[in-house]
Amino acid sequence: MAKTVQLLLTENVDNLGIIGDVVNVKLGYARNYLLPRQMATVPTDDAVQAVAERRVEAEKMVALHRKDRDALCQRLTDIEITMERSCNNQGVLYGSVTQEDIAGALNSLGYAVRPRDVRLPVAIKRLDSYEILLKFDADLESTIKLWVTSNRELDEDEREEMEFDNEGNLIEKPAKKGKAEEKSEPAASEG
Q1: How far is Cα 6 from Cα 23, in angstroms, rounded to an integer?
Q2: Percent of the chain having pLDDT more than 90?
Q3: Ramachandran bin of 146, using left for φ above 0, alpha for ψ from -120 to 50, beta for the remaining angles
Q4: What is the average per-residue pLDDT within 167-190?
Q5: CATH architecture of the domain covering 4-66
Q6: How far is residue 178 from each of residues 85, 168, 188, measured CA to CA in Å?
Q7: Residue of 13, 1, 2 lying closest to 41 (CA atoms)
């Protein structure tokens, strides 16, 4: 039994082809997705001629869409966005910044970016700056700068650094008086 089947696309299908393309797809994809939604049919000469006119229009639309994406890539060069997030005192976010968050921020600035165009190599879970790749097509990509900042003032870590000597022993430092100790000391009498 064949594991793939050859079909004629009657609609544009992302990452597969445009109207009129004859494609090889896995049998399950054809049977469960393309054929029930009438996005493809068996490739016969009559079917190819029936979609030929729609294919010309689809090719024009693809060319126009690519031109728009190319212009968007040029406009996105050197764009920086800032996102405020809740985090702990060490700068670890309580949630993460997702592709949807970045695409939403760019859309609110007037850039038509889909979440699937945003490529994150790792999950963003810390306060920092990140270089984010936006890939619109195999050869259309742009990079933006993302700043993830805290939505509140972070408490400074007041712990002192430990120092060790050459043998690895802890160097004892004289204890500093805390604020509570300074207030409790009796005032020296003058006289």
Answers
A1: 6
A2: 47
A3: beta
A4: 61
A5: 3-Layer(aba) Sandwich (3.40)
A6: 33, 28, 19
A7: 13
